[in-house]
Amino acid sequence: MGTVLSSMSFAIGFSFVGLFFYSLSKHKNRVSKLFSLVSLAMAIYVIGYAFELRSQSLEWIKFFLKVEYFGLPFMFVFWLMLLHKVFLNRDPSLKLTIALMAIPVLTLFFSATNDFHHLYYADMSIVQHNGFVTAKLTKGPWYIVNTVYGFGTLLVGIGLTHRAWRRSACSKMQTVLLTIGVLVPGVVEIAYFAGLSPYGLDMTPFTSSVFAACYYVALFRYDLFELKDRGRLLGSVHFMLDITQQRQFVNQLDNLASYDGGTEIYNRRRLLEEAEREALRAHRLGIHLSVLMLDIDSFKGVNDTYGHLAGDEVLKTVVQACKRRIRSTDVIGRYGGEEFMILLPGADLENATAVAEDIRQQVESMETEHAGDRIRVTVSIGVASLNESEGSDIRMAIDRADSALYGAKLTGRNRVVCAV
Questions:
Q1: pTM listed for this prediction
Q2: 52 falls within a domain
Q3: Do 217 and 248 fall within a single domain?
Q4: In a domain, 336, yes or no
Q5: Is 242:230 a contact under the CB 8 Å cutoff?
Q6: Helix (H, G, I), strand (E, B) or coil at 345
Q7: In 194-263, where does DSSP find H-type helix?
Q8: Which residues of the chain have pLDDT under 50?
Q9: Domain boundaries, position 331
Q10: pLDDT tens across 44-97, in order?
């Protein structure tokens, strides 16, 4: 039985090794390093446990326990840092990183030097079973500290994931897979901590197969962290030519062709290209995609009263208000005149309406200063989500959002209206 269990543990451990090398191969991705650390920590822990199950003496069990703790204390901390990077779109600060790593580093130290103080394991012995032995471990005070800390990071990570789903930063299926992947091992670890595991075995390494399976599905089916390649590289040819000036000129042309000069956001042509791309991606991944059509109320009056330069400043103020509310993964562009379009990948109609209302309120509260004048404007917003029946035809959703915008104008302006 011990051989069977250790073989299962080896198989699970090497599945994490596969994830580790896969994430390393995507070194240009913004989260690949953190994801590789999660995979490496899981691999060290599970493979170390496989060797522990094959050990026949207390000395070897102690040795492989020390090996396991090069991974075990760090798994959920690296996982929490990964979610911080993905969902908050920034690296954890140095102070936060030090605070998160303090307990795991101390746990590694106490487990490695346990024979001198017994703070982690108060006592160790072996128990003979039919054909294999297991370690009987009496938990010390620091074991309890580390376990409580691990559960704490687990709950915070699940909370971050749920928050991201509520704010449409990830799809429902990605949220389910992320949650199940850590919740199942966490529940089993609670059972082990309570002494409910058969033969005193730590079943967490085996249930970590659920974590591996969930992440494999999330990565390769639902494009979690966007690590997947968009194409296959067959080869490369290198030319050594100085094309600096030509490249700068091409970049300038690309900017002129893709961006609106006054607001520095996408122009209509590039905006519609991005809309088509996001619609295809949403259809492929089975996630929501919502459209906001936004128009500045009575903008002609601003130009007539304060001049066109003032009108240009108002446009910039409205764009700034939009950018403060939307995510880095969302798309904003100038649809025409004083009308803008925002694409919200992953957001359903309810979440998109909440974003639209936040933008409306923020614009209403802002002022534009120009030549000593303080100019205030409001916006009307139409909201629509791409329906399943529409497939990847984003133009139908745009038309419905535009109709909803027209309805907002007819019913008094400065409001958000959802498409039916």
A1: 0.54
A2: yes
A3: no
A4: yes
A5: no
A6: strand
A7: 204-220, 244-258
A8: 227, 229-234, 239
A9: 244-418
A10: 998 988 888 888 888 988 999 999 999 989 988 988 888 888 777 778 889 999
